[in-house]
Design goal:
Blueprint (H helix, E strand, L loop, with lengths): L24 H10 L3 E5 L21 H6 L15 H10 L4 E5 L6 E6 L3 H11 L7 E4 L5 E6 L8 E6 L2 E4 L4 E3 L13 E2 L13 H7 L16 H15 L6 H17 L5 H14 L4 H4 L6 H12 L1
Antiparallel strand pairs: 1-2, 2-8, 3-5, 3-7, 4-5, 4-9, 6-7
Helix pairs in contact: 1-3, 6-7, 6-8, 7-8, 7-10
The structure holds zinc ion (2 copies).
Length: 313
Amino acid sequence: MTQPDITVRAVVTTDGPHLPDPTTRQDYARIYVDNGWKVFVLSPSKVPVANCEECAQPGYHDTVEEKEACTCLTCHALYAATDDLDRIDAMLARHPDGLLAIRTGAVSNLVVIDVDPPEGLATLANMKRAGVIRETAAVRTGSGGWHLFYQHPGGKVLSGAGKAGPKVDVKADGGYVVAPPSIHPRTGQPYTWYWDFPTAPRDVLHPRLRAHIQPPEPERRPIVPRDYSTITQNRLRGIVRTLLNADNGHRNDTLHWAAAQAGELVASGEITEQAAYEVLAEAAERIGLPPSEYGSAPHRGTIGSGMRKGMRK
Ligand SMILES: [Zn+2]
Ligand SMILES: [Zn+2]
């Protein structure tokens, strides 16, 4: 097996909170939380801890919000990640052999480039030759790969296998990485910071690497079709705008309100029920509501009940 010719050199800083010798999982967890990272615990085999009986039921705590709000200590894998040290201590106490892990993505202001040996090391060498790898905080993984820690650039950066190149994954929104002082279950080797302290600055992604892993969002067609009178279009746009700006906790209520408004337009003959449904469903999708909630057809779900209310007026 080829040894990595790695020169992702650590930039050691004296800034930030110092613990002289982080040795325990608790010590490391504190440093991670001080860095603004959200932490959770995996089982010793590197897979997430199983959900409790209740949370394992199909349909129970289905959405991201429900998973994040779940009060169980370790249910829902990365969604259990927290910066609450008491909760982290309780997780560690409950899973004495558990591996410490960091949730990546905007929640932790982290994008991690995950290099899997041996093929990924060759990819990394090519990326370095191409000049797209900036020196940054790095972890040598227990399997001989690397985790390169960068600042999250904002917007959405989805996680994906091989997204940065052959065997070089991106761990960002919706992802996580195993973190020191965890031991790799297969090799028995520890994950280690590449230098002696993990509070080095995280660089920003090289613009070309960022463009590669964060392609611009495709332009989306306007939600409200142009084939209505200006007055109707404006009313629909106003309804849609309110819906798109709904707070996370009020998306369903706001959709119900929006559907009732649209129902009035249907009742006055300005728009068909089907067309109103399509506009509302598209907006509901964009704010992340599932069809099971907003309604898979005009008479169903929140849209159906809201429109019925508006049409009765
Ligand atoms: Zn649970
Ligand atoms: Zn739960």
